[in-house]
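Quick log. Single chain, no ligands specified.
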Amino acid sequence: MSDREGGQPGTGEGGEIRRRSGGRSARVQAEVFAAVLAELVEVGYAGLTVPGVARRAGVHKTTIYRRWEDRDSLLVAALAAFTAVPVEPQDTGSLERDLRRYAEGVIGVVAGPSGRVLRALFTSDAGALDGVSAVREQIFASRRPLSAAIIERAVGRGDVPAGTDPYDTIDYLVAPIYFRLLLSGGALDDALAGQAAAATAAAARAGAFRPGGPAPES
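-> predicted structure:
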């Protein structure tokens, strides 16, 4: 590849990495993955190179090429190890409060390093890579059942109609958060969490997330 250039070692910081035990090899891998994410945020996917990652991680480029074939395979591996702290849903006994707490938790995560990685990733051509798409699906698939508990409890309390789809409801809740993160650049704050929670709770109570949507007005 054209990015197989030399460079001087350097250091840097990246996103949140799942670190595994295993001595120097695991430590080097974690440092390389952190460097990948830091470079992605700093220079973008177009500027991401293996030599640049090597300089930031303080390793020789051959160390990276022994394990990963090229830039894209390295990026996919780093993203597979990347993990945002999952947001644990709370049970306050109130649908709107539960939704607000969850929205506040999501905002707390995406307003930090995780959000910078997601923004750099999904606003570039990297988001179209097959490996990246698979990682994205895995991340969301592992978190959706956690948030679904909020709606399942609300159904059990009779706060929302039976048959309310928990995934559709939570998608509606977090959509404005990711819209601001990835598109508009608007404030990610408690006011947004409150607005999203109130709108979602009202829509859920009206049956908007049941099959067929709410009943028509008579």
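The chain has two domains: 22-81, 95-206.
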